[in-house]
Specification:
CATH class of the largest domain: Mainly Alpha
Shape: elongated
Order of helices and strands: HHHHHH
């Protein structure tokens, strides 16, 4: 893998910088929803300190520090999504033959788990009756029928 390095650190042929691949990778699917493009732009912004760096200069430790900062701020899910975004960019760069390593893959299992919230089921027959009456009053027939079916056949 040959890259043309210039005199100062971080200046590299533009097609070898991570910013170029982030832009190219996210621009491959213009048919996706605008919200998806907005989310990718946010993940791209989180990687801003790496934009002018060569692909091969970014290590797992660098991405880990970035994710640690996000986790410290309480943005645990964002840290996971930024790591996944970086992994997609590196996968795309590897497919183009510009890198052999994907430093974001090593982050799996090393980030804090995203907190989840469990929702209790309806076990009281009176509460279930109230749910069914609320479903009967739902204005859209297709949704109403689907909810009735789910309530009657869903096994937990």
């Amino acid at each position: 893998m040959e890259t043309k390095r210039y005199a100062s650190y971080g200046t590299l042929a533009p097609h070898h910088q991570i910013a170029t691949f982030c832009t190219e990778c996210t621009g491959r699917h213009p048919e996706r929803r605008p919200k998806t493009h907005e989310q990718n732009a946010r993940y791209f912004a989180h990687l801003s300190k790496f934009h002018n760096r060569p692909l091969d200069s970014i290590r797992t430790y660098d991405l880990s520090q970035l994710c640690d900062v996000l986790e410290t701020k309480g943005n645990i899910e964002t840290a996971h999504r930024v790591a996944a975004f970086a992994a997609r960019v590196y996968k795309y760069a590897a497919q183009k033959g510009l890198t052999d390593a994907n430093p974001a893959l090593a982050l799996r299992g090393g980030l804090k788990a995203v907190p989840t919230e469990s929702h209790h089921g309806l076990t009281d027959p009176k509460e279930f009756g109230g749910l069914m009456r609320a479903i009967d009053d739902y204005p859209k027939a297709t949704v109403r029928n689907a909810l009735k079916l789910i309530a009657r056949v869903f096994v937990r």
